[in-house]
Design brief:
203 residues, mainly alpha, 11 helices
Length: 203
């Protein structure tokens, strides 16, 4: 009988782990040939192209993945990261919003949506997204810092103090935290840190 397309996807993952993207592409492509509606194979292929710096090809594959699986939050998220890197902030926001429809507690999507909104000058939306980031991940240091920066810029020093107190508690819980308790006050004119972590499929 024919080989299960999942086997080719797993082989592609293994070749990628071994540092052979060419063979990985062959396996992912074969998986798609066998199962044209295999959203995860398109997604993995998109991740591979993204790692190679072929952003347009990655976007094409992510587009295929979400057309087949409209709830594929990671594909929307990775596409959003490409748009954010390109400073195409409206497109990034749209992609992150779609990721969040599928996965409302996706902390990093909230955070990067906040970064895109901040870059467009929408501090209210940015602050709202940073708060949602912290609701999903209370130890998200960059969201805490970015929210504190907005509060300081808008004169909400009471809330700045609150974010500093939270950072102190997080530092106590996480000895590896690399931020300073006074960072918001010293660097309040600095924009939020952009983070763009690529999430790999786990099939």
């Amino acid at each position: 009988g024919s080989v299960d397309p999942l086997v080719y996807t797993l082989l592609g993952n293994e070749y990628l782990r071994l540092g052979d993207p060419g063979e990985a592409i062959i396996r992912y492509t074969r998986a798609i040939e066998l199962k044209p509606d295999f959203a995860e194979a398109y997604y993995n292929l998109g991740n591979l192209y993204l790692e190679q710096g072929a952003e347009d090809s990655a976007l094409h594959q992510y587009g295929s993945a979400v057309r087949l699986n409209p709830g594929f939050s990671e594909a929307y998220y990775n596409a959003g990261n490409i748009y954010l890197k390109r400073r195409a902030f409206e497109e990034a926001i749209s992609a992150y919003e779609k990721a969040l429809v599928a996965k409302p507690d996706f902390a990093q999507a909230h955070y990067n949506l906040g970064n895109a909104a901040f870059s467009l000058g929408n501090a209210d939306l940015a602050a709202d997204q940073y708060r949602k980031t912290l609701a999903a991940d209370p130890q998200h240091a960059n969201a805490n810092f970015s929210l504190g920066s907005i509060y300081h810029t808008t004169g909400r020093l009471d809330l700045v103090i609150l974010t500093i107190e939270i950072r102190v508690r997080v530092c106590a819980l996480n000895a590896s935290a690399s931020f300073s308790t006074g960072l918001s006050l010293r660097t309040s004119t600095r924009g939020p840190v952009i983070m763009g972590t690529t999430i790999r499929a786990s099939v």
